[in-house]
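> run fold ABC transporter permease
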Amino acid sequence: MDLHIINVIIGREYMTRVKKKSFLLTTFLAPIFLAAVMILPTVIMLMAEDKGKEVAVVDESGIVLPYMESNEAVTYRDCSTENPDSLKASFKELGLDALVLVSPLDSVLKTVTVSAYSTKPMSVDMKESIRSNVNKAVEEYRLASYDIDGLKQIMEDVQADIPVSTYTLEDDGEAKISSSEVYMFVSLILSVIIYMFIAMFSGMVMQSVI
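> ok
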């Protein structure tokens, strides 16, 4: 192909594609937008961190409330004698952020059901805290129901949580501490970025061909 024709084609593509506002906006703003999309969830999570939350607990089982331990982030308030519907209708007046309803104890299955209500979507940390406390209460109740001396201590003794330290070996045989989770996370981010750029510029190429 004549070099002059190639130059004409390149010049035409430059004028019709590269100089377009859409190309410039896509080229410079797309990476910023992608970074914002990846960072925004973390920022929202940090902003939604539980601080000084007031949570009312209506415990009809009689076994859960002692395990709902207050801390700097969450204060649990015993409202077992209150009407749940009245509490739901008076959230703001009572200064509540959430309401936890624990059902009466099922003596056959040795379990309870739990419902949580809040004016805003409940954070993952608060939900996990409630779930963990309820699970602990039910587990303690089940252990006590077997009426075996020292059963609780036996169960604690057999529990294991063994961490695994990972290392990578250098060419000289030296071991270096590594974290597979970090590598996996970085790989995932880079894969998403590569995919976005390929999709973006493939679309531009197809438009220029058409």
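Residues 3-48 form one domain.
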